From TrEMBL:
It comes from the Bacteria. It comes from Pueribacillus theae. Its cofactor is Zn(2+). The lineage of its organism: Bacteria, Bacillati, Bacillota, Bacilli, Bacillales. Pfam families: Lactamase_B. Gene3D superfamilies: Ribonuclease Z/Hydroxyacylglutathione hydrolase-like. Residues 12-191 form the Metallo-beta-lactamase domain. SUPFAM superfamilies: Metallo-hydrolase/oxidoreductase. GO terms for molecular function: hydrolase activity; metal ion binding. The keyword Zinc applies. InterPro entries: MBL_Glyoxalase_II, Metallo-B-lactamas, RibonucZ/Hydroxyglut_hydro. Keywords: Hydrolase, Metal-binding, Zinc. This is Metallo-beta-lactamase domain-containing protein.
Amino acid sequence: MKWKQMPVGPLQENTYVIWNDANQCLIVDPGSEGSKIIQYIETLNVTPLAILLTHAHFDHIGAVDEVREAFNIPVYIHANEEDWLEDPSKNGSIRFPLGVIKAKKAEHIIKNESQIEIGEFSIEIFETPGHSPGSVSFYFANEGVVFSGDALFQGSIGRTDLPFGNYEQLLNSIHQKLLSLPEETEVCPGHGPVTSIEAEMDSNPFLTGF
């Protein structure tokens, strides 16, 4: 499996394009610049299968419909935020001067932690709320990589001062779900550089004293 980190939009949200040896592709959090994401996928000569959303804040969903319609693929989102795609007051776009963002309903609703198969991809879904109530992380065990959305960053954690955020819940999510992964696991966050579980266990100031 290979993946490409693509910072997009004014908040430099990390969209990820993931593909495998079967030339199948997944897109995680297409937040903005849909044409850029689509063009990159087309250069890979792969078949997109789905869009996976770690959560539904506006900077992570801005290009959902453009990418979905370009490839005619379904969207996966957690049940706690399924109505956020259509509601600017919940996805937060109404509070930022970047334009109101809406997307159509998702085709697949994640209702609990599970392991799913999409094409030849095997994905473990962890519920990691705190930054937002429907935040999830997508773990590819065979590849040793987790896409953590805005739960865990290099040297930091997701903000919890937005509506529906919960600091203690986020810390519990990180410790119980993410830090329980093998230390060599790569962490692909929603913003900023890639890190590892080991690095965050050793030096993340939000976690070392917990």
